[in-house]
Amino acid sequence: MSSTIVTVAIILSAFFQGLQCASFDRLLVENLLKDYNTDVRPVENTSQVLEISLGLQPYRLLRVDVVEQLARMSLWLRLTWQDRSLIWSPSQYGNLTRINLPVDTIWTPPVGLLNSLESRFAPLFESSDDGLSVLAEIRYDGQIKIAVPTILSISCLMDMTMYPFDIQRCNPKFGTWAYTNKDLKFSADVKSSILAESKEAFASSAGWSVMEYRAVDQHDNDTNTSPSVTFTMQLRRHTTYYIVILFLPCLSNAMLTLLVFLLPTETGERIGVGINTLFIMWVNYLRALNRMPKSPDLPVFCKFSYFVMFECVCAIAVSCLLISFYHMNVHIEMPDWVKVRCQR
């Protein structure tokens, strides 16, 4: 009987403690958001600059398109700042030290990807179309943290000079056009700006390897410009596929071009083999050209292809001359000085 009474007492105590905690949460949220304005920067003085720490943690490189010059990746965006309007004493609210609120109920910086390929500039932590809202973690001292998973298409200027042995660099730049440096100050969160996985696992599915990833903490002293923070990522293309698909056929065609001269002249197949080899080279070159953007510099593969095609053209021209000489019926007397040389 006594054990039953103790069990019931424990259950009732836990139940009432849960109700009390729930009431503290509700009371705290009501007091914090009672006179809160989501359209005003949370600073004590309008001349004060609000510092925002921004961290970028890439999770997976999905695609690198050199024709459209973009890199598409999934990542975590982390923001941290101080809101002086959301400070409370934990002792007055059941020792609550943090709460989670939807970002729609508090002020949030309109941060977006400045070098995005999207048609419009949109904050990265807006509520999704399916009704799910991003939550912000708020501490009792007013510190706010937001972590947002997203997929972005980043515009990257591709240098195709060494294609397919090229190394590309993408610089995602985050910032806002709504404020200037006298209102907001962005700084890179170096600790959270790391790859979520190893370099090999991050880019393995896209055919690239990550050579370098770091945050570039830039400070612009001009108060009239928009605040921003830049990250840099250096990517190297996996070349095995391109060596097998592009370079080995070119080398085989170059060898076939030289083997043309081993065919007997009377067969009349030298020119046919040379033309077929040149046609295969041209098709292979056009297929590779469709995968490359227009560039003022000639890539290494194009130079190699032009050299092999020039070799094919020279082989066809020499074969034409040899066949022409072979079928000539003109008898040419050997000069005396040649006979003397041959006799010696």
Automatic annotation (TrEMBL):
Keyword entries, A-Z: Ion channel, Ion transport, Membrane, Signal, Transmembrane, Transmembrane helix, Transport
Organism: Pocillopora damicornis
Name of the protein in its database record: Neurotransmitter-gated ion-channel ligand-binding domain-containing protein
Principal location listed in the UniProt entry: membrane
One Pfam family of this chain: Neur_chan_LBD
Domain Neurotransmitter-gated ion-channel transmembrane: 247-340
Listed SUPFAM superfamilies: Neurotransmitter-gated ion-channel transmembrane pore, Nicotinic receptor ligand binding domain-like
Domain of life, per lineage: Eukaryota
Coiled coil: none
GO cellular component: membrane
Signal peptide: 1-21
Membrane topology: Multi-pass membrane protein
